[in-house]
Amino acid sequence: MMDMNEYALEIIARDRQAEMREFIQGLDRARAARPVSRPVRIVLGEALIAIGRRLQGSNDSSVMRPEMKPDANCAVVTRRRSVSGPARA
Predict the structure, then answer these.
(1) Residue 82, domain member (yes or no)
(2) Which of 24, 34, 54, 76 has its CA 20 to 30 A from that of 84?
(3) Domain range spanning residue 39?
(4) What is the pTM of this model?
């Protein structure tokens, strides 16, 4: 094998180091441009909740739409939950 002088070895090492830095910077830019991914369990949970709401016939159960508001002719039935014990009939 041929001996390399220190100067040539230093230039080769410096070039290789510059190439690796450019490569890492490219990876960092690609990672920054990519949208943040959410964990699978969160996405799956939200999908199951959305499916459940659709099966119940409501897109958003937390919002009361105008057609759902009780009017004066409608009797509203509410159930009270007992804090201290079971409900009595």
Answers:
(1) no
(2) 76
(3) 6-68
(4) 0.38
The pLDDT, as a whole number, for residue 66 is 53
Look at residue 30 and tell me whether its pLDDT is greater than 80: yes
CA distances for 34 relative to 6, 20, 29, 30, 31, angstroms:
42, 21, 9, 6, 5
Q: Alpha carbon of 76 to those of 11, 20, 63, 71, 72: distances in Å?
A: 84, 70, 18, 9, 10
Look up residue 43 and give its amino acid: V
DSSP 8-state secondary structure symbol assigned to residue 24: H
Residue 34 has pLDDT above 70, yes or no: yes
Q: Is residue 78, in this structure, part of any structural domain at all? A: no
1 within domain boundaries: no
Say how far apart CA 21 and CA 59 lie, in whole Å. 50
Single-letter amino acid code for the residue at 51: I
Closest CA to 49 of 38, 61, 40: 61
